[in-house]
Amino acid sequence: xKKFIFAGLIGLMSFGASAGSRTGFxxxxxxxxxxxxxxxxxxxxxxxxxxFEGGDCDVKTTGVLYFSTxxxxxxxxxxxxxxxxxxxxxxxxxxxxSIGGAKYPSISSIYxx
Length: 113
Fold this sequence. Notes:
By secondary structure, this protein is of the alpha+beta class. It has one domain (21-112): CATH 2.40.50. The chain is 28% helix and 36% strand. It has 2 helices and 7 strands; from the N terminus they run H-E-E-E-E-E-H-E-E. The chain has helices spanning 2-19, 72-85, and strands spanning 21-22, 26-27, 33-36, 44-48, 62-66, 88-99, 102-112. The N and C termini lie far apart (41 Å).
């Protein structure tokens, strides 16, 4: 029985690891960012020229942060602070979002180094 539980946990861990994508720790001080405000649900920030590794998104060089996401304002503040200070951060995406027919990494977490 313990072997089956262990095998199940390993399977879940490998599934979770393949579902998301991440940039590794990067300096975004020279990267372009763009804010788009249309509605409360659709307002978003694009972070350009980053390389997301892993995941199933079509576009791997641009991350999107929706402001309807929990803690989005805090993540936005953290991102701008790191950009201005030249500090390294890691962007993490747990899912893709469809925009104009392409799937982009949706930023769900930011790590500060």
